[in-house]
């Protein structure tokens, strides 16, 4: 279900409830239940990027035994260790970079690109208020990051990942006007909350046999160790690390 189809369904249900209520054929409990159901659907759609509820999202691979590596929240000093592991295994990755982080670490941003990886937009500030921002602020966060990333790297930005994977009607409306492909994931490592490398690895390992887009964070030191194990496992089990650019058409800039 998409947001537009949900709106149509909700209008139909509202009219039906109003009619049945007027006829005395439905109780307030049913009305409250329908409202709570609507709130639950909206909440799920907002928090689950791969649901495609508010905007089309590329979140899953179709071919078997493939993995796309993605990293959020850099560039960061720890990104250098991540790059070292990727270079060792000749593995491509996509880094969703925060604009202000790129301004602080332009050399790392350019190393990401020079080593053959993709840079995507992860907003200018990665604000904790992202899901509550007005459309104007949402547009600024995305466009300002694109401007800074392109200026610093000399490369066009084609891909975007919203902070926390959160979308809503305002964010979706802005994204539909921008020449960016929205990239999600179907395997979330949770490396920002699971700090023990072995526990993190045990969470990821059983899920690697499914073709996935995995979400890591290049800001986390323990992710370096888990990335090494992930790449070694993929190599020994015939899982190919593929580039995002090989799996999705690059949007053209207006």
From TrEMBL:
SUPFAM superfamilies: Glycoside hydrolase/deacetylase. Pfam families: Polysacc_deac_1. One of its GO terms (biological process) is xylan catabolic process. The chain crosses the membrane at residues 6-22, 29-47. Keywords: Carbohydrate metabolism, Glycosidase, Hydrolase, Membrane, Polysaccharide degradation, Transmembrane, Transmembrane helix, Xylan degradation. InterPro entries: Glyco_hydro/deAcase_b/a-brl (IPR011330), NODB_dom (IPR002509), Polysacc_deacetylase_ArnD (IPR050248). PANTHER family: GLYCOSYL TRANSFERASE-RELATED (PTHR10587). This is Putative xylanase/chitin deacetylase. It comes from Owenweeksia hongkongensis (strain DSM 17368 / CIP 108786 / JCM 12287 / NRRL B-23963 / UST20020801). The lineage of its organism: Bacteria, Pseudomonadati, Bacteroidota, Flavobacteriia, Flavobacteriales.
């Amino acid at each position: 279900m998409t947001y537009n189809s949900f709106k149509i369904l909700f209008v139909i249900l509202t009219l039906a409830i109003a009619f049945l209520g007027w006829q005395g054929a439905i109780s307030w409990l049913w009305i409250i239940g329908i409202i709570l159901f609507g709130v639950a659907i909206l909440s799920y759609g907002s928090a689950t990027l791969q649901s495609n509820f508010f905007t089309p999202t590329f979140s899953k691979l179709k071919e078997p035994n493939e993995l796309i590596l993605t990293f959020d929240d850099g560039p960061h000093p720890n990104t250098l260790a991540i790059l070292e592991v990727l270079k060792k295994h000749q593995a491509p990755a996509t880094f969703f970079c925060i604009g202000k982080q790129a301004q602080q670490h332009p050399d790392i941003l350019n190393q990401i690109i020079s080593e053959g990886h993709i840079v995507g937009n992860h907003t200018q500030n990665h604000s904790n208020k992202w899901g509550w921002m007005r459309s104007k602020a949402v547009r600024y966060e995305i466009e300002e990051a694109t401007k800074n990333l392109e200026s610093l790297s000399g490369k066009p930005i084609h891909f975007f990942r919203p902070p926390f994977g959160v979308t809503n009607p305002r964010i979706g409306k802005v994204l539909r006007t921008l020449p960016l492909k929205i990239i999600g994931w179907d395997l979330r490592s949770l490396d920002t909350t699971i700090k023990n490398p072995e526990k993190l690895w045990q969470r990821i390992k059983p899920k690697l046999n499914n073709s996935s887009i995995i979400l890591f964070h290049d800001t986390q030191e323990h992710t370096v160790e888990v990335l090494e194990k992930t790449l070694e496992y993929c190599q020994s089990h015939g899982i190919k690390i593929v580039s995002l650019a090989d799996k999705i058409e690059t949007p053209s800039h207006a």
